[in-house]
Amino acid sequence: MAAEFLKTRGIGLQGEISKVQFGDASSTTESPTFTRQKVGKIQGVRLPNREPDSRWDISIEGKAITSIKPHDPQNLAQASDPEILKPRDCFLATSLCHPHVHLDKCFLLDDPKYADLSIETGDFAEALSLTSKAKSRFSLNDLMRRGRWLIEESIEAGVTCMRAFVEVDATVRFKCLDAALTLKAQYRDACEIQICAFAQDPVFSGENALDNRALIEEALQRDGVEVVGSTPYVEADETRMRKNVDWVVDVASKYGKHLDLHLDYNLDANKEPMTWYVIARLHSQQSVSERSEKTTVLGHCTRLTSFTADQWHDLRRRIGDLPVSFVGLPTSDLFMMGKPSNEEGGGERVRGTLQMPQMIQQYGLAGAIGINNVGNAFTPQGSCDPLSLASMCVGIYQAGTKTEIELLYECVSQRAKAAIGCGDGKILEMHEGGEADLIIFDVGTSGRRRGRRTLQVLVYDPPERRIVIHEGNVVTLEND
C-alpha cells in the first residue's frame, strides 16, 4: 500500500530505502588514490619467446621501450636508483586489455542494494529482466562505487586499457555515461578507458525507440565518448534489426566513432546471421575508407559457431580490408547459451562461443577475447582478470601448445588492444619502440617458491602477485 501510494506521487519506495541503506548521499567526486613511480630500467627478467633460463634488461624512456638487452649481473652499479626495478626470477610481459566490458552493470549480484534481484532461472530472458529492474534504481553514487570496483580490480590484474560499455536510453538517460566519464578522468593516469555509448534497448521497436536514438546521438557529442554500440537482436523483427544496423553504422560515421555491435547471440543454425548484413552495410558506407582508422568490433556472434569451413572462408573474403575484429566472450556465452528447458533431461547442453584461435590461425580473421560482464545475471562467475579468462580458454578451446598459448595471451593483450584501436594498435611481442605498458609477474618469488619460467606456464597457472606498469610508470593503488 505504502509503495503504491508513494508511486502516485513520483516517489520510488525501493529507491528511497536504498538511499538510506547504501549511502546514496555520499560524494561522487571522491577521487581514487594511486601512485605512479617512473621506471627507467627493469633488470634480470624472463621474457616471452626467449630461452626460459635467460634474463633480460629492459630500458624505458617516457612511455616507450628503448632497448632490450641480455642481463649482465655485473652491471648493478646503480642498484640504489629508484627508477631501476630488479625483480628476482620474475616474468615480464605486455599488459592486459578488456576489449569488451560493461562498466554500469558490474557486480549487481554483490551489491546489497540489489540483493532482491537474484538469479532464479539463469536464462537470457531473466538476465534482461533483472538488469532492467536494476537500471531503474541506478544512482550516480552506486554506479561510481561499482565502477571503481571493476576498474581497480582490473588495474591490479594488469589491465592498462579497456573499452567500457555504458547504457544510454530513456530509462537511465545519461546517468551511466556521467559516471563513466568521471571515472575515466579519475583513472586516466592509471588506465586508458574508452567509453562506448551503448544502445542495449531497442532503437526501432517500442515506445522509447525515438528517444533512445536521440539520446545516443546526444551522448556521442560528449567529450570522452569514443565508441557507439548497439544490440540489433533486441529489436522486434528482422526488418527493424537491419534498421538498427543501418542507423548505428551511419551515426558512427557521422560522429567519427569506433563501432561495436552485440550480434548473432543465438545457436540457431537455421537463422540467417546478421553478420552478413553488417559486413555488406560497412562496405556500402561511402566514407568507410575515410574512417579506416576507426575499428568495428562484432561481439558474441555465437551463431557463427555452426559455420562450415567454406562459410568461414567466405566470411574472410567478404570482410576484405575492412577494419573488423571479432571479440569472443566465453564466460557469458557458456553461461547463457544452450540451457535446456525443464522438460528436457538436461544431459545434452549445446554450448557456443567463438573459437578464436581457429578463427585467427586457420581463417586469418582478427579477434580477441574479453570478460564482458562480471558479477551480474548475464555472467555471475569470473573475475576482472583477463589472464584467468585466457587460462580457462586453454580448456574451452583445447589449446595448450606453445603457439596456441602465445595466441591466447595476445587475445587478452596486444590483439585485444588492436581490436579496439587502443594504444599503437600493433600486434607485436615486446620490442624496442613499443609501448611501456607491462606486467611483472611472480613478484616476490624467491628460491623456495616456484616461478613461472615460460608464458605457457604463466597462462596455465596465472600468478596473483603482479607489478603493473602504465606509460612507463609503476601504478600502485592505495587501498583503504
Mind sketching the topology for me?
Elements: H1 2-7, H2 13-21, E1 34-38, E2 41-45, E3 56-61, E4 64-70, E5 84-85, E6 91-94, E7 96-102, H3 124-135, H4 140-157, E8 159-167, H5 175-186, E9 192-199, H6 209-219, E10 225-230, H7 238-255, E11 258-263, H8 274-284, E12 296-300, H9 309-319, E13 324-328, H10 330-336, H11 356-361, E14 366-369, H12 386-396, H13 402-411, H14 414-419, E15 438-441, H15 455-460, E16 466-470, E17 473-477
Parallel strand pairs: 2-5, 7-8, 8-9, 9-10, 10-11, 11-12, 12-13, 13-14
Antiparallel strand pairs: 1-17, 2-3, 3-4, 6-15, 15-16, 16-17
Please give the order of strands in the largest beta sheet. Answer: 7-8-9-10-11-12-13-14
The radius of gyration computed from the alpha-carbon positions, rounded to a whole number of angstroms, is 23 Å
Low-confidence stretches: 1-26
Structural class: alpha/beta
Roughly how many Å apart are the termini? Answer: 42 Å
Q: Note the total helix count.
A: 15
Number of strands: 17
Mean pLDDT over the full residue set: 88
Structure description:
With 480 residues, this protein is an alpha/beta fold. The chain contains 15 helices and 17 strands. It has helices at residues 2-7, 13-21, 124-135, 140-157, 175-186, 209-219, 238-255, 274-284, 309-319, 330-336, 356-361, 386-396, 402-411, 414-419, 455-460, and strands spanning 34-38, 41-45, 56-61, 64-70, 84-85, 91-94, 96-102, 159-167, 192-199, 225-230, 258-263, 296-300, 324-328, 366-369, 438-441, 466-470, 473-477. The strands form three sheets. An eight-stranded parallel β-sheet has the order 7-8-9-10-11-12-13-14. Strands 1-17-16-15-6 form a five-stranded antiparallel β-sheet, with helices on one face. Strand 8 (159-167), helix 5 (175-186) and strand 9 form a beta-alpha-beta unit. The chain is globular and about 70 Å long. The model is unreliable at 1-26 (pLDDT under 50).
